[in-house]
Amino acid sequence: MDLDARVHLLKTIADATRLRILGLLAEEPRSGRQLAEALGLGAPTISHHMARLVEVGIVRVTPDGTRRLYALNAGLLDAAAAPAATATVAPIADPDHARHVRIFFDGPRLRSIPAKRKARVSVLLELLRRFEPGRRYAEAEVNALLREAHDDVAFLRRELVDYRYLAREGGVYWVNPDVPDRDANEAQEVPAGEAAWLGQLVRGVVAG
Amino acid sequence: MDLDARVHLLKTIADATRLRILGLLAEEPRSGRQLAEALGLGAPTISHHMARLVEVGIVRVTPDGTRRLYALNAGLLDAAAAPAATATVAPIADPDHARHVRIFFDGPRLRSIPAKRKARVSVLLELLRRFEPGRRYAEAEVNALLREAHDDVAFLRRELVDYRYLAREGGVYWVNPDVPDRDANEAQEVPAGEAAWLGQLVRGVVAG
DNA sequence: GTTAAACTTCGATGAACATCGAAGGAGTGA
DNA sequence: TCACTCCTTCGATGTTCATCGAAGTTTAAC
């Protein structure tokens, strides 16, 4: 996480409305409408803030009928609570990874799905990081997470399973604990340091 | 610390230039000129940022000849490092305290020194909070800290000592560990919680 | 007093952005 | 298909604020 990223993240949290939103989401997940009512703000304003919060990863969103349910990203906070645990997926060592990500991602969205295998692997690994290791996901949850990146969730899901990045049994998915085929991947320790101060911050700020 | 204060503090840190300044000050104290050179910015810009950082208490300033030396407020960071310690001065329980502070303070500055004893006590206790308990101060340091509030530092210093808020021996001052005469003061526990997340944040952000 | 260095204040400029109303999807159910 | 709800996008508005040059202030040294 470089300077710009940190500034971006801080700027995102440094707003009264968004702090109040985080406080509400810390109690329970809520829809946009609920947040708008609770804060006395218009729907466009809420939409604006939620887009920012989701973009930096503090909030997760799942479609639910015509509504969209927003929830605090528990993974970050849990990582902060157990600062010794290494709860993140091992880093990606492919030197072209960053370039691929830059080319194919537009924020959280995927501009397109790469045709070439190497770039597709980069994109899939990047998507894999949105899943919490150890947690089990229903197929709908997997779809919801992937839909933040691209509409063809079925293809992405199939690819993730084919590459063994996601394991599946019945309708339940989870991150493969020892991901295969990750080029030159030496599983270096990434203690939850980065997530730790973020989570600590969010906890502290939200708790008041 | 209410919502607005937290937002204000976050907004203060959420700036690339100020984060770089904090990073530099984490290494060693520096003057405004040094910071301007290191960052390639104009003197007015540095002055602007330093005023903000000092106002929120992350940075301390001491005059040094024609220069002003800026240093990270070690107290906050130390409080974060030992999260169990209660390193802050006991809170002020006088119900009129907040009103007095609002009336007589304009940011860190004192509009005037209250003539009435009650209000003056409030102001003095508020000033006392700018000192780190346990730390020993040279008279020049005491003056420097008080000068941020008002030019008549001699009067303020004498009052602080007269009220036994500051103890003195030789030329050395320190916060009286058991402050007397603090109306209805039941020394409630204020674990360094607030400072903790701030310090944790600064540490994390600065360390990268 | 005078000069020089370091810093602050003032005013202006431009960029970022929170908010809103109006219009435009998108999902749900008749 | 139609209506309804929820949400997003667009365009406009007003505010905040980082930055700079110019001018003012403070401190030290002679």
From TrEMBL, chains A, B:
UniProt keywords, alphabetically: DNA-binding, Transcription, Transcription regulation
A Pfam family of this chain: HTH_5
Domain called HTH arsR-type: residue spans: 1-92
Family annotation (CDD domains): HTH_ARSR (cd00090)
InterPro entries per the UniProt record, alphabetical: ArsR-like_HTH, DUF2087, HTH_ArsR_DNA-bd_dom, HTH_MetalResp_TranReg, WH-like_DNA-bd_sf, WH_DNA-bd_sf
DNA-binding in keyword set: yes
Domain of life: Bacteria
Protein name per the record: Metalloregulator ArsR/SmtB family transcription factor
The organism of origin for this protein: Propioniciclava soli
